[in-house]
Amino acid sequence: MGGKEDILSYIKHMAFAVKSVDDTLKRYQTLLGVGLDARVVTAEVARIKVAIFNVGEIEYQLNESLDADGRFSQWIAERGTEGLHHICYAVPDIDAALESAQAEGATLKLCSACNVFGSHPHPEGYVAFLEQETGGIELELMQVYTPEELEQYKSIRGI
Ligand SMILES: [Zn+2]
To answer: Cβ distance 89 to 140 under 8 Å?
Structure first.
C-alpha cells in the first residue's frame, strides 16, 4: 500500500437508471445476448426494481424506481434521459481511499438509500459516495467484505 496506484482494485458494478427494467433487460438480451441469467429483484424498502447480471467481469445493475418520485425516477426526470447513474469501484481499503481523495479536496456525498455520509455497511461491502463526479458519473467506492464480514452483515438489506 501507499501510492495512488493502490487506491482502486476493479469495477464492482455499473448502475443504470432506467424507466423499465423489463424493457431494458430484454434489449440487452436480444441485442447483445447478455443478461440471460439476470436476477430481477424488487426491493420493497428501497422501492426499486433491479436487474443484476454480469457483462464479462463487470456487474450491471438496471434500476427502476417503483414510484414516480423515487430516487431513479427523479434522476431520469432531472436529466431528461435514462443513463449511467454511477460506477462502483472496489477498493482494498475504503478508509485509506477516502482519506486520499479527501486530501485532494473530495467531499463525501450522502448515501440516499441509507441517509449516511462516508463509509457504512451495505449488503456486499463498506460503501461510500463522493460529491465529486468523473465526467458526470457519480462515484461509489466499496471495500468488498471478507467472508467473515459478509456473515456479520448478512442481515443488511438493499443494494
Ligand atoms: Zn448506503
So the answer is: yes
Q: pTM of the full predicted structure?
A: 0.89
Cell 447480471 belongs to residue: 53
Q: How big, in percent rounded to 5, are the helix, strand and coil portions of the chain?
A: 25, 40, 35
Q: Decide: 72 and 65 in contact? Cβ < 8 Å.
A: yes
Residues around the ion ligand 1 (C-beta < 5 A): 111, 113-114
C-alpha 71 – ligand 1 centre gap (Å): 13
Q: How many Å lie between the centroid of ligand 1 and the Cα of residue 20?
A: 23
Cα separation of 54 and 11, whole Å? 12
pLDDT digits (tens, 9 = 90+) for 47-65: 999 999 999 999 999 999 9
31 CA from centroid of ligand 1 (Å): 33
Element (H, E) at 151: helix 147-152
Domains of the chain: 4-152 (3.10.180.10)
Ligand 1 center–CA 77 separation, angstroms? 22
pLDDT tens for each residue of 104-125: 999 999 998 889 999 999 989 9
Q: Is the pLDDT of residue 157 over 90?
A: no
